[in-house]
Amino acid sequence: MSSVDPTGRDYSPSRTKYRIERIWLTPIYRSLIRTGVPLAIVVALCTAHFSKPETQAALAKSVQSAWAMVENRPEFAVNLMRVEGGSDAVAEQVRAALPITFPESSMRMDLVTLKTQIEAVDAVKSADLFLRSGVLEVRIEERTPAMIWRGVDRYELVDATGVRAGTLETREAHGHLPLLLGLGAQAHAPEALEIIASAGALRGRIRAMRWMGQRRWDVMLDRGQIIQLPVHNPTPALERLVALHKARDVLSRDVTLVDLRDGRRPVLRLSSAAVNELLRLRAIADEEEET
Amino acid sequence: MTMLYETQRAMRSRRRAALQRGVVAILDVGSSKIACMILAFDSSVQMNAAEGMSAIANHGAFRVIGVATTRSRGVRFGEVATMEETERAIRTAVQAAQKMAGTRVDHVIACLSGAEPRSYGVSGSVALENGSVMEHDIGRVLSECDVPDTGQGRDVVHAMPVNFALDHRSGLSDPRGQIGNRLSVDMHLLTIDRLVIENLLKCIKRCDLELAGFASSSYVSGISALVEDEQELGGACVDLGGGATTVSIFLKKHMIFADSVRMGGDLVTSDISQGLQVSANTAERIKTFHGGVMATGMDDREMIEIGGDTGDFDHDHRRISRSELIGVMRPRVEEILEEVRARLDMAGFDNLPGQRIVLTGGGSQIPGLEGLASRILGQQVRLGKPLRIQGLPQAATGPAFAASVGLALNAAHPQDECWDFAIPPSAHGRLPLKRAIRWFKDNW
Lengths: 291, 444
Fold this sequence. Notes:
Chain A contains 8 helices and 14 strands. Chain A is of the alpha/beta class. Chain A is elongated, with a radius of gyration of 43 Å. Chain B has a 5-stranded mixed sheet with strand order 3-2-1-6-11, sandwiched between helices. A 5-stranded mixed sheet of chain B has the order 14-13-12-17-18, with helices on both faces. Classes of the chains: A alpha/beta, B alpha+beta. At the A-B interface, helix 1 of A face helix 3 of B.
């Protein structure tokens, strides 16, 4: 039998062809060639395309515009801000503090940031923000001023915790509040309030509290009387003075200053008229003794 | 004998390892066609089949997932004659089968019809140590068989214990656990020419394949063509191939004799070619389309165009009657069958309880062969087709595929489970010590 077919070509596969066929029939190579190679080509093409800066820029731009389109939908618009729970003046301050021009998309609003911005306003203690059907609702809780601090050029309202609750040009509107004096006195406002609360009968006479030398308080009474409190335990010292006043009526006399800094005894300073009177009376007493 | 024991065990374990991989190819290297079948094995079923000696042949354990045949090239008388050509033919068949199966295959089990198979009956016996047959006793008795001098350059391909005898009780197929004093075994050895196998091995290596097993096609075509009672009671399988006709005799489900006649269908073709002055291809075509061995009056009137391509009108338009063709074919077929008869007589086929003869192989398709064969071989002749196996396409179920199908069956259910029984270490004698010494010599 002849080994070749009439066309003169051998019909049997060449050894190379046979081996290639066998490799193709091996499952791992087969899957590699069928999925691995196309995958590699696609990945390579994608990487080449997207690594170009102009493509990246165009992509970023289109994403941005699409995002802006969504943001600018009327469904997301916030047209109005309503401030609740505060006086008109505070509301005005809150509005001024927010850098928003309405209408604005709710997707561009960061309520957390807005909340911190609103709470940065002095008169606002805390704020809650809600977005309801296109309205930005701001519920604020105002700080209640407890004292007025007087500086060189301005007045500041201070709440019970010692935090600033606003600045004033005049103290007319808040005439009933006690005055704080001295540099850095605001931070110690709670202490001052505590001292005032313990003043008892003297309470009506207190005009101001003065923070002296960053360490202790002076209580300023009407008629220009000053009570100098010690650095430590000022409240008991004042309570002792109040008791003394009740018993001897000290502060109704012509005393300009009561120095309580020495814990063992109060030191009084009389007014010059009182001193003169005292000296005159003493002189009279001396004369009578001599005679 | 220990060498036989070890080689048989090695062959068995190699085939098992290949089957564990799940896919194995069957390669029937014949003189007229090369068939490649790819079998997919279910390894779980395979494990069950290995449990005992008498495990039933488990046909469900594999299915054929690819079959391809190609015209054989470079093979004569069932032996590799031209290596390059054979390699190409094997490549063609394997590639086509792989393509059909959709998977690659690395291990092949091959069979050849030539290589002068010779049968030997050997026996061995051992005294049982503790009165009953233990598993290692079977290993011991197998390794005790005295192997006759098989001649230079010959290898044992099949060594199967046909019969066990315990004291005076013979005819045992599985003596394990039985009580007795002396266990003896009758074993059938089949040897073939080593060079032929080595040539085939080389061809297979060059196709990037690994030989996982080898069988003689006389044995495997008997497995597929003989039905169970024929194998049990005694039957002969005659595989009329292209280059060689193989004969195998079965008894008690084991092959007891195998031989090969170096004559086959190709010889008939060349007779036609010479007798009618036509080319080999034309002769093959005439043989397959019009051939026969029993002439009738009708055949005188049936004219066959035999043609030619010489350009001579008279030569190219010759016509012969079918009787003339039969007249050319019949003497050669008779000669082949007479040779087969001689081999059967030599083997003592007359003494078997059943004397069924089954004709199979491509040559058995000649019309009228059955009648001719019954005159020469005896009355009980039938034509045999291989058993059905799962997944085998219709085109590969003909008698020409008896050896391929048998090889597949043999791969799924080899009859050499006996070699699994280990010899106890004491039976080796001083061998381990010798081995250790040799190892030291080799390595230090």
